[in-house]
């Protein structure tokens, strides 16, 4: 009796795999698993040219960088993407203090623990360089393995309103994204509020900060306001309330950014 064996036809243009052949997919699996590739006769791969953190796989590192870049573009801060700590030539922008804080955040993530300082408050007058310093912090953090976002306070509140979310996102997705980021930079806290904030603004801000504190995730704040009003000028507590101020000051460190208005022309304009 003759038995006919069925064979699977080989697609045109494809060669059959040889027994024990290391395919590109298997090679990638071995590499991600930490296998010593030199034992397989495979030469070491060159370092990435864009200086990404060597403890993060290149695709993941690029993804982290893109998340950060997208948030900066949403805030219309494209011009700030070039700044790093080395570019903060004014000591008043506290580059060393920012770098030390970032070191603690990176180490805490590696160790799976909460950072000792969860809130970094960066108050200062208009044009003193707060956003530049915060951008340098975010640029460096995104390159060291932290999911980092920057959002203006007023923008976050607008996104949390019905039909206010960007790119077809739902309001709960906006909240989730900003609560779960490893590092959130909340820019211009209460910056567009001239008086007492609405109940919605207070509730949403407290919810965001409370949720990040409960999860042990650090947040940096920039603001033109002081904690409490002086000389008829309102402070954070006057606008957002005592409850929110106490949340911000919980496990916090203050870095005052003091300096002349960098945006002001050297010569006053007569108009």
Q: What is the secondary structure topology, with strand pairs?
A:
Elements: H1 24-32, H2 58-74, H3 95-111, E1 119-123, H4 130-142, E2 148-152, H5 153-159, H6 171-180, E3 183-187, H7 199-215, E4 219-223, H8 236-240, H9 242-248, E5 252-254
Parallel strand pairs: 1-4, 1-5, 2-3, 3-4
Helix pairs in contact: 2-4, 3-4, 6-7, 7-9
Helix content: 25-40%
Helix-strand makeup class: alpha/beta
**Computed CA radius of gyration, to the nearest angstrom:** 25 Å
Query: Which CATH class is shown?
Result: Alpha Beta
Share of β-strand residues? 5-15%
Coarse morphology: globular
How many strand segments? 5
- How far do the termini sit from each other? 105 Å
- What is the average of the pLDDT values? 82
- The CATH topology assignment is Rossmann fold
Oligomer: single chain
Give me the CATH architecture, please: 3-Layer(aba) Sandwich
The CATH superfamily label reads P-loop containing nucleotide triphosphate hydrolases
Number of domains: 1
Instruction: Indicate the low-confidence ranges by residue numbers.
Output: 46-55
Task: Explain what the structure shows.
It comes from Streptomyces subrutilus. With 271 residues, the chain is of the alpha/beta class. The chain has a single domain (64-254), classed as P-loop containing nucleotide triphosphate hydrolases (Rossmann fold), CATH 3.40.50. The chain contains nine helices and five strands; from the N terminus they run H-H-H-E-H-E-H-H-E-H-E-H-H-E. It has helices at residues 24-32, 58-74, 95-111, 130-142, 153-159, 171-180, 199-215, 236-240, 242-248; strands spanning 119-123, 148-152, 183-187, 219-223, 252-254. A five-stranded parallel sheet has the order 2-3-4-1-5. Helix 7 (199-215) runs parallel beside helix 9. The radius of gyration is 25 Å and the shape is globular. The N and C termini lie far apart (105 Å).
């Amino acid at each position: 009796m003759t038995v006919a064996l069925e064979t699977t036809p080989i697609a045109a243009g494809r060669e059959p795999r040889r027994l024990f052949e290391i395919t590109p997919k298997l090679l990638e699996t071995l590499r991600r698993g930490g296998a010593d590739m030199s034992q397989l006769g495979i030469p070491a791969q060159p370092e990435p040219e864009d200086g990404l953190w060597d403890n993060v796989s290149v695709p993941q590192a690029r993804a982290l960088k893109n998340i950060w870049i997208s948030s900066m573009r949403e805030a219309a801060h494209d011009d700030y993407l070039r700044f790093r700590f080395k570019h903060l030539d004014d000591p008043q922008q506290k580059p060393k203090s920012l770098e030390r804080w970032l070191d603690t955040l990176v180490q805490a993530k590696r160790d799976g623990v909460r950072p000792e300082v969860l809130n970094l408050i960066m108050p200062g007058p208009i044009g003193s360089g707060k956003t530049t310093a915060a951008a340098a912090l975010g640029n460096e953090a995104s390159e060291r393995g932290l999911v980092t976002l920057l959002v203006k306070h007023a923008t976050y509140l607008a996104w949390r309103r019905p039909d206010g979310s960007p790119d077809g996102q739902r309001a709960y997705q906006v909240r989730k994204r900003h609560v779960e980021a490893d590092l959130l930079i909340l820019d211009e806290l209460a910056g567009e509020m001239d008086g007492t904030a609405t109940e919605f603004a207070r509730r949403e801000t407290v919810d965001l900060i409370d949720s990040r504190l409960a999860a042990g995730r650090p947040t940096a704040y920039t603001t033109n306001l002081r904690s409490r009003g002086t000389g008829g000028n309102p402070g954070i507590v006057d606008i957002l309330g005592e409850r929110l101020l106490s949340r911000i000051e919980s496990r916090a460190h203050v870095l005052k950014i003091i300096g002349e208005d960098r945006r002001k022309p050297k010569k006053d304009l007569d108009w």
